[in-house]
Design brief:
110 residues; alpha+beta; UDP-N-acetylmuramoyl-L-alanine:D-glutamate ligase
């Protein structure tokens, strides 16, 4: 896909297997396993949750890796609830889960 269409970013959702992230500028192509924050109750809307969270954080930070990790968390939490309008994490919850699963990242000093 990257060779044919030349996108800057590809996020290829793989359901329970996780995602593949391709970021041309960062020079990465990496697979991330799914994470488990809740018991799976309903997977309706998981892909939409993943994509919308990725887009939100990527546009906010420009960091595709942090954005995809947050998206995995967001989608994992979402599928623990019934109904497509239930189970949305707050930004504080995302930060807590991110630190729990991937560790606290040192702050960049400018």
């Amino acid at each position: 896909m990257a060779d044919r269409y030349a996108p800057d970013i590809i996020v290829l959702g793989q359901g329970a297997e996780g995602v593949i992230l391709y970021d041309r500028a960062a020079g990465i192509k990496v697979h991330y396993n799914s994470v488990n924050t809740n018991e799976v109750v309903n997977t309706a809307g998981a892909g939409n949750a993943l994509f919308s969270c990725f887009l939100h954080y990527y546009l906010e930070t420009g960091d595709s890796v942090k954005a995809v990790k947050n998206a995995l968390l967001f989608a994992s939490y979402k599928i623990g609830y019934l109904g497509t309008s239930n189970g949305f994490m707050t930004t504080q919850q995302l930060d807590q889960w991110h630190d729990l699963i991937w560790g606290v990242q040192p702050e960049t000093v400018i």
